[in-house]
## 1
Amino acid sequence: MNRPIHSCNPEIKLRPGSTLLADKLHLPALNYPFPEGRDSNTDVVEAEVVEWAVRHAFVERGGRGEAVLRSLGPADLVGRMFHRMDREAFLAASIWSAWMFLMEDHFCEAGAYHGSPEGLAQFHLWLREIMTDSHGYDWHPICQAIIRRLPVEYTDLCVRTGEATLDMARRIEKVSSSTQYLRWVEGMTYYFLGTIWQVGVSINSPPPSVKEYLLGRSSFGGGAPTCALADVVAGYEVPPNDYQHVEVRRLRTLVGIIASLCNDLMSFPREIGMIWNLPNILIAQGMSQQEAVNDTVRIHNDLVREYLELEARIRSWAGDGLQRFLHDMGTLMRGQYDWARRQKRYAATDNFFFDTLANPRTS
């Protein structure tokens, strides 16, 4: 018999607001020797993303959900990661960014499928089929099967998610080559795998080791599909053999982990006691809050140094498309930092004394 799906326990659910630490902590310098920037169309695209979410009833106009989405700024995140984008591709990627925020909130770690990895697996397989064949797959029958296993309050939301996923996938497919689009679907599959592991972990489970955590974080952090969209949004294409070269695969994995650790640091005050945050795992091993922050920054900066060494090797043989991709991987990581530091829900500037960025580079 399948296990019932439960609403998330209050101890697990992410807090709706930020938490101020008892004592403000020192955040050592993060190493981002990459250019800062923001696409000039970001504010206009942001407004269109909100309209998309309202139209698909993911959020209610004028309600708290709309306010949270505006505060999150999904287009602001994309616009800071990739500075010069094709207009329609920018909108498609920003809609995907909003879709990720909303879908996770409703269905993943703190949502309907908490404690039910098999239920989330079925849900993700359904979403993946929509993405795989966005013009031929009839998603309604499986949607009805999923609804039968969900609490009644998720019935309409599940249907709206199917409709929104179809629209989002078609937008990305329209601005991608077939190879680029399937790269993104593959990245989403890797992301889905990590979230299934995530929802199966109980608050009473032993915390994972640092290596176990980083393995999962590189998946459910969404790094793979984000990297897959880098050349799509900028209107070029990395040759497939270059994108899948073993050194480029290693580099993309590093990018995903580095961006995730930045998020862990910025969101730490909001997620004290949560298992899916590296400082909390280090605290469970006996470190103080400040020691855990320091060690997370050390791990982060060690990975950035590894990235820079690997990037230099790749640049020695990379063609024009891959050279542009390497530039975009740098702005992706720096953009994650610039976005997260400004997030009101993280309250990072209220909780940390910031050192300046290490070794900034302007071009």
## 2
Amino acid sequence: MNRRRADFTSSLYLGMRHASTELPGWSALTTGRPAALGLPPVADGVAKALAELQGTEAVLLARSTLHAFADCLEVLAGEQTGIVLDVAAYPIARWAVRRAAGMGRPVLRIPHHDLGSLAAALDRLHARGLRPLVVADGVCGGCGKPFPLATTASRLPAKNGLLLLDDTQSLGLFGERPGPGHPFGDGGGGSLRLAGAKGPVVLVSSLAKAFGAPIAAISGPAVLTEKIRKHGGSAMHASPPSTVDIAAAAHALRLNRVEGNALRERLATRIRLFRRACGEQGLPLSGGLFPVQATPPVAAPRGKRLLDRLAAAGIDAFLRRDCRGGTALTLVITATHTTGEITETAAVLSAAWNREAERED
């Protein structure tokens, strides 16, 4: 019997999958009504539990982050608003900003995590009498580094500004008070919990990664989420999240309460093992203690040869552009990977990398 392929392409970081046997039954997938006319009853419990987890006043569920960001920018970026965009923000956020720009909103693009450029952009907009709306990722999926949330949030009240974060990569992974024994922190509540910050912040998060549920949430001050609920276009013109998606989210939040911290510690152990094994064989990886691990930048032909070598060994990985604009061979570590898969993949990848380096010398 052939052994299973080692899949390093899935972003189900904690391994949550929500089989049909784990969820309650359903009589219909959707209500047939737009979201503005109401969500399935179980949605209220999910929203309240998620708000408590993230440390926000309220949560509004959405079908996807595309719907959520479109609604947020439509409602929060009024005529007297200027947008400050981190250039490495996830494409879905950038698409929504592009739409806002098409509606006449000025957009200032700043380098990735550059606090000096951020301060200058806030000053420029404030001098023009515009309210700043900063758009960025809570944790960068490219370098694995958190956005300087606390510093940014502390600067916004003086400018009457607002921070809109894509917290997809952080939710379910990062939480309060990280330390040596629990490097991701406690609870998995995301960026606000990690930073221990308060302030004018709205989070858009997909639960499809760490929590494995294909549903999104808009989290923040109740006055703003209610405004988005009433005036966001997708709430009027699109169906709400499906009954199954909401049930999966409820199941994920229950699992997180019971075993989330243990899963995160298991994941951290596997990431460290992979990084150490590659490093010992001469291959430094970027990503820090984040599930997405990448080689140094490679040209496309070399990257394709590396992928072929991994595939021949039964290992699935992928090439992608990082937050600095380079292309790297990338593997996603999850809590479901065995230590054997981790060590074998590190050995194959490192050997292939070193052979390619010798070939180019």
## 3
Amino acid sequence: MIAAAAGLVPALVFLLLYVLCRRHDRRMLRNGVFLTAAVLFGAAAVVSILTAVVPGFGIVVGLVVLLVPLAVVALGVALIVNGVQMLRREGRSLGNLLSLVAGVLVFVLPTVAVVVFAIATDGEQDVPDTLAVSAVVLLVFLCVYVALAFVAFAVYSVVYGRMRFREAPDAIVVLGSGLVRGEVPPLLRSRLDRALALYRSEVAAGRRPVLVPSGGQGADEPRAEGTAMAEYLLANGAEAADVLPETASRSTRENLRFSRAVQTEAGRDGHVVVVTNNYHVLRAAVLARQLDLPAQVIGSPTAPYYVPSAFLREFIAVIVEHRWLNLVAFLPFVAFTGFLLWESFQQR
């Protein structure tokens, strides 16, 4: 019982780290890591305590563990179905393929690992078999690492997106996304409507923040996103003097940086609220922090079918942007696999 209760210690440590780091800056990715670690360690400790004090609870835990493979299968099927839906509704592109590819990998990777492990351990092992088993072990570590990182990212994206900010904005920046035949599509309209709702509430409170619709012209667009967004804002009640479009940016980082220049030129260099879709809030907030902007990010609703693929795209972008940090974090797993391989050779 004492040993089970001691498992709460790491959960409390990670919870304390989460609270301190969140108070320091809500926009840090490590907040999600600490929060997820606190929840996982806390859940493990609670299960251990209940198993020790509640008769028969261990059987319940065992049944839940047996259901894990079914949950993985259900996840894979759901991702594949969502991937097909994305291709039908949004067209063929690399970004729209992500949920389909992820669903296929849910089935392929465990199958490959089991087959390679079975072949490599069938009979007397030689050097190639030992290397194959080590590769399987490293693949398992990689999958677990990526899965936990994604859970941390997704959990904190939801948590951050539900936070409320008290600072009155001097400017409201709306991040652009692709136009459809030069017009604002539903995804982008959702961002603009969220920005308009905030703008109207600020005007009702006696304040006049500027609206900065931000987005340049893509290769497949007849005009700049910022121009089309400004037209929408004006057509839906925003004052012309309060709408300052930014039409040169080509990425989220440029959206934020170029919009800041527009605000500064207009004499509005106070607090900023950035509006994007809910799946994009955390990455946009991280970029705002990297640019040292006094900005927080709020999200607008997204069609449910679009969310899985969008979250995967955002997660991959974050992994790529922090590739060296992730490489360093994964090195202990590589070292451990190398140690197992070395031990295997030593025993020959």
